[in-house]
Amino acid sequence: MMQGGEEKRVLESRTPARPSLGEAITALRRGAPVLIRDDEISVLAVAAELASEENLRRLREISQAPARVVLTRRRAVALGLAARDELSGALTISVADELPAAVIRNLADPGASLGAEPPGFGPKPLPAKGGALAAVALAKLASLLPAALVLRVGKSEAAFFARRGDLAVIDGAAVFKRDAATAGLERVAEARVPLADAENARLIAFRPRDGGLEHLAILIGSPDPSAPVLVRLHSECFTGDLLASLRCDCGDQLRGGIAAIAAAGGGVLLYLAQEGRGIGLVNKLRAYRLQDAGFDTFDANEQLGFDADERVYLPAAEMLRQLGFGTIRLLTNNPDKVIALERYGIRVAERTIRGQLRRAGLHRAALKAAPKAYGRYEAERPNERWVTDVLVGPWVPYPRRDGSARARLFLIVDDHSRLLVDGRFYDRENARLCQDLLRRAITRRGIPDILYCDNGAPFANAWLARTCAVLSIRLVHSKPYSPQGRGKQERANRYIREAFLAEATHQGIESLDQLNDWFTAWAGQVANRRVHAETGQAPIDRFCAGGPHRQADPAVLREAFRWSVTRRVTRTATVPLEGNSYSVDPALVGRRVELRYDPEDLSRVELFLDGKPAGTAVPFVIGHHVHKAVQPAPPPQLDPTGIDYLGMVAAAHDEEAGTGMKIDFTRLQMQFPQAEDGSDD
Predict the structure, then answer these.
(1) Distance (Å, rounded) from C-alpha 597 to C-alpha 470?
(2) How far is Cα 337 from Cα 32, in angstroms, rounded to an integer?
(3) CA 539 to chain CA centroid, nearest Å
(4) What domains lie within the chain, and their CATH numbers?
C-alpha cells in the first residue's frame, strides 16, 4: 500500500503539465498537431499552410474524426465560400478525408490559389466555435496564415490525448486571452545608444512574460512625466526600416519621428514588434505578391484572411505606464492609435492642428462619408490618352480540356475616339507582353500623350516607366477605389465579352493564334467601324479626323523598349546581371555604370557611363540567355507520329531476353533423377 506522500507524487506525475502558449505556437509552426481544449468544442489542429501528407497521416492515426478546414470569414469571402455581409469571426468547412495536402495549403495561401476555382465542398460552411475558432487565433499568434485543419474530439478523448505527452496542449481560453497577457511586460535591458538625429537617446527593451518578441522604447532626452510627453508609435518594418524599401515610407517615418522628437526637446518612440501591421514579415511578403497581381493593401490582407490592421496597442500603453508617462502628445495621423491608447488608460492630449481639424469635422472618417460626384471625362483629341487593361478571357483550347490555358487579352483603347488601338490574347501575364503590345500600338497608331493603367504587375514596373520616359509618354496609374477614367475601359471589356467572346466560345477555339486572328478581324471590321452611341461616329473615323499623329523615330523606339539597370563594376572588371557575369573595360573598375539590354537576349549588353556610351559588356559566364521576368512561351505541341516507341523498345527487350514467345508447358519433358544402380525404378 502506498504512503500518502508517494501516492501524491504518482498522481502529480500523471497530471499533465500546465499548458504553455509558447509551446503550442512552436508546435504549430513546426507543422505538428496541437490539442486545443475548450468547454464547447475541443480540436486537434494543424496549420493549413503547413499541411503535408505526413502530418495528415499522423493526424488520422491519432483520431478518425471527420476533418474540417477553418478559415477566417475574410478568406472565405475571397474564395467565394461566404457572403460579404459579415467579415468577423471564422467558418468551418467540411472536407473529404482523402483531400490532398496541396489543396488544403491552397485554401490558406492565396498566392498558390490565385485565379483558381476552389474545389467543391460538402455542406454549407458553419460558424467556427470554441477550439476551432481558437485554432485560427493561434495561427495568427504564430505569424502563420489564419487557417487550420481541425478534427473535433470529445472531452474524454481530449483528456486522454493531453496525458499522452507527445502533443502540445493549450486551452482555448489562453489563446483568446493572449491580448491581455501581452500587458505583462518586463523591463529587461537598457543602454545609451546615440543616434544620428538624437545623440541623447536610450534604448529600453521590454519582454512579454509569455515569451513573445521584445518591444523597444527609444527614450530621447529627459522628458518631464508631469507634462504631456511627445510620443510616436512605430511598428517594426524590416523592408522599410532596414532595407529602405520603396514600397513604403516606414524608414523615413522612423527617422523623421526620431528627429521630430529630438527637435521638440525630448520624448519617446515606441518600436513595436508588429511587423506588417501585425501579420508578420512572411505574410507581408505574401501581401506584396498579391499587390503585384493588382490588389491594393487592404484587399491583399483580405485575400490572406487578415483584417486590414491586426496591430494591438496594449503593449504600448503598458510601456508608457512603466516609463511613467500617463499623458502624451501623440505624433500620428491614425485615429485608431488615439482610440486604442485612451481605451487602455493613456490620456492623449490633442494640442495640434490635427485636433482642431478633427473637432471641426475635417477628418478622414468624415471626408470618406461625404458623398462623391464623378463627372464625365473625355480626352479632347485622339492619342491624348490611351487606357490599357487586361481582360481575363476563355480557356484555350475551348471547350476546356487537358492542356488548356486561360487566355488574357491585353487591350489598349483610345479615350477620345473609343478606338480599339490594339489588343492581343496571351496565355500568361508579364511586363514584357505589355511592352510588346504597346510597341505594336505605337507603330500602328502613333505615340500617345498619356498612358492610363491600373496597378497590376504588367503595368507597375520600372521597365514600362522607362519606356514611357524615353518616348515622352506620361504614365498614370489609377488609384484604389477611384473609378475615374475606368468607365470606358469597363464598357469596352463588356462589349468584347458579349459581342466577340460569346461568338468565339460558341464556335470553339483551337489555339491562341486562331483567337487572335479572329479578334484582329473583328476589331477592324466591326468594333472600330460601328457608330458609337455616345460619340455618334465610328471610332476609326473619329480617330482619323484628327490628322496625322506623332510618330516615333525607329532608333528611339528601339531604345525605349530596352531594359536598363545600374551596376557597380567589380575589382575584377566584371558586372553581374541575372546570374550572368560580363567583362568590361578595366578603366571602369569601381564606377557605377548603366547596363542596357533586350531582355530576350542577354548575350549583348551595352554600357553607359553618365549617360554616354562606354562600350559593350562581353559575356564572361552566361547561364541565362533570357531575363527571368520574360516568361517563355510553352513549347508547341507536336503532332503524334503513330509510332509506339516504348512498345517497340519493350518488344526488342523481350526478344533479346528470350521471352518473346509464350511457354507451352504441355510440351516440356519431365526430368527425374536416376537411381544409383542405373535402373529406372
Answers:
(1) 15
(2) 36
(3) 39
(4) 14-176 (3.90.870.10), 181-274+311-367 (3.40.50.10990), 385-544 (3.30.420.10), 562-621 (2.30.30)
Q: Is 75 helix (H, G, I), strand (E, B) or coil?
A: helix
The secondary structure of residue 531, as a DSSP letter, is: P
Give the total residue count for the chain: 681
How would you class 86 by CB atoms within 10 Å of its CB: exposed for 0-12, middle for 13-18, buried for 19 or more? exposed
Please choose, from the candidates 344, 255, 243, 338, the residue with its C-alpha nearest in 3D space to the C-alpha of residue 284: 243
Please name the helix (run of DSSP H) or strand (run of DSSP E) that holds residue 456, with its range, or none: none
How many CA within 13 A on the CB side of residue 468? 21
Residue 342: all three cell numbers together: 485612451
Please state the φ and ψ torsions of residue 204, each to the nearest 5 degrees: -120, 125
Return the closest-CA partner of residue 345 out of 362, 364, 326: 326
pTM over 0.90: no
Q: What is the 3-state secondary structure (H, E, C) of 112-168?
A: HHCCCCCCCCCCCCEECCHHHHHHHHHHHHCCCCCEEEEEEECHHHHHHHHHHCCCE
Helix (H) or strand (E) holding 559: helix 554-560
Bridge partners of 330? 231
From CA 68, how far away is CA 45, in angstroms rounded?
10
Which of 550, 508, 546, 544 has the alpha carbon at shortest distance from 529?
544
Helix axes 335-343, 314-323, angle to 10 degrees: 60
pLDDT tens for each residue of 133-164? 999 999 999 999 999 999 998 888 888 888 88
What 3-state DSSP class applies to 434?
Answer: helix
Please give the DSSP secondary-structure letter assigned to residue 665: G
Give the model's pLDDT for residue 9: 42
b/e per residue 10-34 (b: at least 16 CB within 10 A) = eeeeeeeeebbbeebbebbeebbbb
Q: 343: burial class by Cβ within 10 Å (0-12, 13-18, 19+)?
A: exposed
171 vs 37: CA distance, rounded Å: 5
For 204-273, the three-class secondary structure string (H helix, E strand, C coil) is EEEEECCCCCCEEEEEECCCCCCCCEEEEEEECCHHHHHCCCCCCCHHHHHHHHHHHHHHCCCEEEEEEC
Contact between 231 and 268 under an 8 Å Cβ cutoff? The reply is yes
Active site residues: 309, 311
Note the pLDDT tens digit of each residue in 326-349: 999 988 878 888 888 998 899 998
**Burial degree of 319 (CB within 10 A; 0-12, 13-18, 19+):** buried
**pLDDT tens-digit profile of 80-108?**
788 777 778 899 988 887 788 888 888 88
Q: How far apart are alpha carbons 346 and 323 in whole angstroms?
A: 12
Contact 618, 582 (CB under 8 A): yes
Bridge partners, residue 235, by sequence: 272
CA distance 619 to 624: 11
- Cβ atoms of residues 474 and 451 within 8 Å: yes
pLDDT reading at 280 higher than 60:
yes
Q: Give Rg (Cα) of the chain.
A: 34
Contacts of 656 (CB under 8 A, 6+ apart): none
Q: Residue 294: CB partners within 8 Å, gap ≥ 6? A: 454, 455, 456, 457
- Paired with 450 in beta bridges are 385, 474
> Distance (Å, rounded) from C-alpha 291 to C-alpha 163?
46
